[in-house]
Amino acid sequence: MNRVSGTAGTAGTVGTLRVRFLARYAELVGRSEGTLTVHLPATVSDVMSRIRDEWPGTAALPAQPLAALNLRHVRLDAAVADGDELAFLPPLAGG
Amino acid sequence: MTYLSTAPLSLDALLAEVAAPHCGGTCAFLGTVRDGPEDGGVTAIEYSAYDAMAEAEMDRIVSETRRRWPDARVAVRHRLGLVAAEEASIAIAVATPHRADAFAACRHVIEEVKKRLPVWKKELRADGTATWVDPSGHPSMVGPQ
């Protein structure tokens, strides 16, 4: 893995993300987490496209799942940065 | 602050947390595991969470509630793991100087939890089946456990 310091937005750099799948999505994908190196800048959607290519189980996820970046809900056009934790969340059912 | 618990929830403990001399109204809410006529014989619900985010999100919900109702004292716990029918999965207590704010702030907490907390539930039934609950209306069977 190429692990580089720095943040998103600098063309030509790469970032390493921890990608997590929660609850039902972990069952669908067949894993609860993985590590992915992406070219930056990149959005959550870009990462989705990458993992669909590289991790076959992710084909079972919906086209636009809920996402969280570093423990906060984000839209799919949010930018990711090196070291981020990106999580895909099934429809929430707390309470 | 830890908002998640695998142990049975104690409303008494939450009421003690929010009690204060300046508060004349306290509102408590319990969400319990339901097995209604339309629920198909639910014996328990298994709750799971994105733990670190659930703690952070609940902290944001509580902080926002305190900002909106500055005199409010707020305590909340969400249970994880196996919760039997009729037992509480969430307990909220809010104390304020006057009752209207206690009702409003307590309602605010549970509504935000429903919208934002990364918690999931799998309904377990007497016939051995289990179903992930999808509030958007698309339950998915996961087969006998």
Describe, in plain words, how this protein is organized in 3D.
Chain A is 18% helix and 31% strand. With 95 residues, chain A is α+β, with helices and mostly antiparallel strands. Chain A has a single domain, classed as Ubiquitin-like (UB roll) (Roll). Chain A has a five-stranded mixed β-sheet with strand order 2-1-5-3-4. Chain A is globular, with a radius of gyration of 13 Å. The termini of chain A are far apart. Chain B has a single domain (4-130), classed as Aldehyde Oxidoreductase, domain 3. Chain B has helices at residues 11-18, 51-68, 99-116, and strands spanning 4-5, 25-32, 42-49, 73-79, 81-84, 88-96, 119-125, 130-132, 140-141. In chain B, a hairpin with a 7-residue loop joins β8 and β9. Chain B starts with a strand and ends with a strand. The chains are: A alpha+beta (95), B alpha+beta (145). Chains A and B meet through loops of A and β3, α2, α3 and β7 of B.
Question: How would you describe this structure in keywords?
Answer:
heterodimer, A: 95 residues, alpha+beta, Ubiquitin-like (UB roll), 5-stranded mixed β-sheet, 5 strands, globular, B: 145 residues, Aldehyde Oxidoreductase, domain 3, 5-stranded antiparallel β-sheet, 4-stranded mixed β-sheet, 3 helices, 9 strands, 34% strand, elongated
